[in-house]
Design brief:
Elements: E1 17-19, E2 44-46, E3 57-58, H1 60-76, E4 83-84, H2 89-100, H3 118-126, E5 127-136, H4 147-153, H5 157-166, H6 175-180, E6 187-188, E7 190-198, E8 204-213, E9 229-232, E10 235-238, E11 248-252, E12 265-266, E13 271-276, E14 279-280, E15 293-296, E16 305-308, E17 320-329, E18 341-350
Parallel strand pairs: 1-5, 4-6, 10-18
Antiparallel strand pairs: 2-3, 5-8, 7-8, 9-11, 11-16, 12-17, 13-14, 13-17, 15-16, 17-18
Helix pairs in contact: 1-5, 2-3
Amino acid sequence: MRLRVPRALTTVLLASAALTSSCATEGTEADDVEFDCDGPDCPFDVEPSIGNCQIGVLSAAWQTRAIDHVNRIRQSSGLKVVEHDAALDLATASCALVNAGLDSISHEPPASATCMSAAAKQGCLEGNLTRFRLAVRPTSLAVPASAARIRNALRTPEEFVESWLIDKTEDGNVGHRRWLLYPFMKSTSMGMGYRTSTGADGATILDNLGVLQVLPKAFADPDEETPTIVAYPVGDYPATWVDPSYYLSVSLLVDRTNPARNSAVNYDGATVTVTRDGKPAPLAVLASGEFDVRTSNEFFGLPNHVQFRLAEPIAPLASYTVVLDGVVVEDASGAASALPSRYEYTFRLVQ
């Protein structure tokens, strides 16, 4: 199926925030929990405490797990790996602590927020943010959930990273994903925090925050082996990293030396064609009758972007081909630098 792609800009600023899960249970004031654990399964070397404004110092094992998973995802799209920058740990951990104390996550917490600091402000402006909210049920109504049960309920680094990759937000903006797949990304840091409170039914409500630095402090240099087509999913791709009914996406790396020059991609007259095993795979249609396709030149990772949904969920092991045709790359004056181009890639969801 072919269609004209409308130009539609997203509206969320900076690295977009997502409420991964919600719980309507009312909570009381936050409680601090001390975890008695050590070894590679222990999330923190220093436990976060909102009451004492103590940031959580993520263990080396969990920091490594987070960045290793970011790199598995990047390598699946043909991108270079990123490294840990310990100088960013204070900012990401501080942002996680402040947001754990808020009722909703924010890239711009108010100056009056509990434990607010310059480091928290930086981390929240420059990072991907996600909150997991869940209820930890006690083993007995008379006994609150133990510290061990709460610790075991904390989301893993891999779960946080995959939530940013799938990126199911209320407004459909996949800015988190675009930052994970940014070819110029060179280094990062993961920060985590949490808050516990008591729900109306006696359950312990756990608000678990994750922050990943994504705005570059230093830029990588994509080489010629870095693909021009930065797509999600692409090639043989793990099915667990994809919601088969949600948005697919693609950006184009048209300039490997100047990140900003990648905004010079015009999708106004472009068409999108998708086939499944050689047969047309229709795109999803909105209530307005238009195809559910969005484009953007905002600076969420690469500043050119197309995202679209299929009418039917992606089928495991089926071979899909995506073609972008009529894409115009502009020169510095805004004029087309060459004839409209055609870009094609394939993907398949595998176990």
